[in-house]
Amino acid sequence: MQTYYELLGIAATAAGDEVKRAFRKEIARYHPDKLHHLGPDLQPIASNRAAELTEAYRILMDPVARATYDASLANGTGAAASSPPPPAARTAPVNSSQEASATPGPTPRTVWETRASAPPFAGKATIARIREVIQALTGTLEPSLDGGFDAAFVLRPRRGVFQKSEVPVHLRVKVVDEVDTAAIAAVWPLATRITSAAVTPCVLVCGTRMAPSRDLAAAMAAQRRKNRQTVGPVVIPVDTRDWDALMPPDPPRLVRKLIEGLKLGV
User: Fold this and answer.
1) With CB atoms 3.0 to 4.6 Å apart as the test, which of 57, 203, 210, 253 could cross-link to 179 if both were Cys?
2) Cα separations in angstroms, 36 against 29, 102, 160
3) Tally of domains in the chain
């Protein structure tokens, strides 16, 4: 559960201009033009998050409403950002399309960057976030044998009458301090053990720091050559500060949906 300040990635002492810049940056991620490709399972998530951002902006830009909100946080009764806004707030939302078209301000310090100073907590939070999105996408949460990873799940698509059957994805998660070439080299041998014709194996290597994409791509190519693999396991480096990922050309659909859901902030 996040406060409105955490939702926007700003400090509780942020001035109005900083609130506005943070809102513009975040709401731009949920502009309809950027989300039209999402399926029906993620559209409601995006819509809810846009409403939460709009409500946070409305409260924090109103001096009286903000003072009341700050007082409620101080005594422990403040509403979390994930709570739906009251009906009155929905009748007169901020024009998010206009705000999104404005030039974004400097990137604010996110809640994930703040948590990066405590690796054990950040690791648990990373896995918890992934678990929540998997459950939202599949409707179930099916743990799997970890095989030396920090978490493991089986991803199965929701069944639909006209939906083409998909091979389940065996997802492994490894949380590291920094996603670099050394982390790729350490994870690769574990990833190659996930072998089955009935499933698609995939590994997310997650961290709050990430080496340049070209270095990571070169490291994975070197591992394939070293192990004489034409394709090799699907290993995806993920920066948990903004859930940006170095995706392969043709990732499993469920994994692509998972990364999209993480970026949307389920």
Assistant:
1) 210
2) 12, 20, 21
3) 2
